[in-house]
Structure formats: C-alpha cells, structure tokens
Amino acid sequence: MHAGRSLYEDLQPTQPENVRIMGFGTIFFIVVTVIVLYQLRSVLGRRTGNERPPFDPYTRPEVKNDNATPSGNVVTLPSRRTPANESVEPARPYEAIDKAAAPGTVVNEGMRRIRDADPSFDPAEFLGGVRTAYEMIVTGFADGDRKLLKNLLSQEVYSGFETAIAEREKRGERMQFSFVGIEDAKITGAELRDREAFVTVEIVSQIISAVVGANGETVEGDPEAVVQVQDVWTFARDVRSRDPNWKLVETESEDAGTH
Questions:
Q1: In the chain, how many domains are there?
Q2: How far apart are CA 245 and CA 238, in angstroms?
Q3: Is residue 74 situated within a structural domain?
Q4: Residue 227: helix, strand or coil by DSSP?
Q5: Are 235 and 198 spatial neighbours (Cβ–Cβ below 8 Å)?
Q6: What is the pTM of this model?
Q7: Phi, psi values for residue 149, rounded to 5°
Q8: Together in a domain, 233 and 152
C-alpha cells in the first residue's frame, strides 16, 4: 500500500480512461438517433397507400383529355353543318372548260368529251404546258437538237423536222435564233377519237430568226428583226395511257408580220 492513499482507493477497479469515453459516446449517439427518428416520423407521417409514385424521368406523363370518350378514343372536332335554308351547290366539272370556250360551241363540246374520258384535263393547265413545249420545240429545231425533238413530236412530225435539219446541215448552214415570247395562245379545236384526244391551239409568238450560210452570209431572214409568227399546232394524247405528256402531231404556220 502506498503512502497517502486509503485502502478504499486501492480496492476500486481501475479502468482505462478511453473506455469510459467510448461508453459515453455510444450512449450519446443512441439518444440522438432516437430523437431524429421521432422527428422524421412526425414530419413524414405514416404511409396510407395514397402516396404519389416516385418520379420517373423516362416515362411520358399521361395527359388528361376531357374530350375523350369512355372507350378512350379522341373525339374529333365537329365539321361545319349546312343550315337547313342553305343549299349545297353541285359540283361543276365543266367550269374550267366553259371559261376556255363558250358553252354550246364545237370546241367546248369536244373538250367536255375529253374531260369525261380524262378527268385530269384542264384547259388552263394544258395551255401552260403548250407554251413551254412551244418554246422548247422551236428552239430545239433551230439548234438541231434531235434528241429533244424526238421526245416532244409524233413520229411523222419528227420525220419532217429531222429532214429539214439534215438538209440545213448538208448545206453548211445554221440558224441564228432568239425566242422573244408568246403573245397569245388559245384552243381552237378539240375532239376525242376513240381513246385519242386531239387539241388544236393557235399560238402567236415573236421570234428573231435568220439562216446563216457557210461563209457567214445571211441566207434567209433578218438576224435583228423581231418577227411575229402565227402557228396552228395540234397535240394528241392517249387518254388511257399513264403517260401524261402530249405530243405535237400536226403543224401549220404563217408569218403574221414583221416589227
């Protein structure tokens, strides 16, 4: 027994200081955990079965549609109803034809028959195509473009054009040509023969045309004068064919004047 110490102190069990600290720390954390769990329970409440499902960013949200039928089909918007006192005007399939030629005329009746056989026939659209084809054909003839002409002309008309081109080339001549424009184009004839539709168009155009010889001399025409030309061309097409293109099957022309 050491001096200055009592017997009671010598009999007390000795424990390391760090053991006493660990015991106190454990108790402290237990108390804190209990308090936190209690607070969470009071804030979050209990599960009732009506909680929202967790958010899924990859699932498209459902959009509520008040116009849906009980079966889930979407109700389409209602179309405009015609009032009882408002009559519906019947379709006029010949309206475009009546604008191109007066009703009751031979030309109008011919176009109506073509329209009956080919519902896609429209005089205004047809004339638009004629204007384009006319410029291509007269320019192709001046340039001697046989490939272009063969696609736009019937075999008989192409044969005549090709002969004229070959003779011009044989003489060493060439055409000096400029297309100025079309002043007017109107349908002057229409008829349906079996499955073939024929439409005749009178075309008034302005061109500059001259034939130049091998030595550069002007053989025919005037390379500086604008000439007005009046052509009467007939186009044909098989109305049962899938090919929508018309071909030139007949030509007539005469000079209408020089400007």
A1: 2
A2: 9
A3: no
A4: strand
A5: yes
A6: 0.64
A7: -65, -35
A8: yes
